[in-house]
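look at this:
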Amino acid sequence: MKICFATNNPNKIMEVKAALGERFEIVSLQDIGCLDELPETGDTLEHNAFQKAKYVKENFGVDCFADDTGLEVDALEGEPGVFSGRYAGEPRSDERNIDLLLKNLGDSSIRTARFKTVIALLLSGEEYKFEGVAEGEILYERTGSAGFGYDPIFLPKGYTRSFAELNLIEKNAISHRGKAVSELVAFLSHI
């Protein structure tokens, strides 16, 4: 089955392809000729995910799925949340986002946080939603060089290594996106 993953993030595509394996051919926005910046104006992860998927379906006519992910930090009342990718403003920068988050968190001892992913799937005229959550805490400094986004400062619950210190297989087994993709794969496997 061929399906478009509506993202411009090559790291996300790599993670999803690794999780889906050989059963599905994942094509990127570039593969379908979409060079547009996808809309992300919602105030929830679900709204943004469906907004992106619908844009691709309406403008390029292909079945697709899109995700939106947010990091919710308890001490910051859920920030950066839906604004995680653009927390430090434009142009988007993982490094600046991390710097701002660590600055805003300061030396607070309340470090609990969670990543949430919502995947919106548009398939054969129907809409489906899949979710994944990874609980953990925010480290005081970056560790590791793998992954992307906030991975160097996110310590998943029950682990002693950050997401950026895990290999792709380890991360996909426990991550928010890995859990949401597992739901997506289970669904696609039964159609």
Observations:
- The beta strands are 2-5, 25-27, 64-73, 80-81, 112-123, 126-138, 154-156.
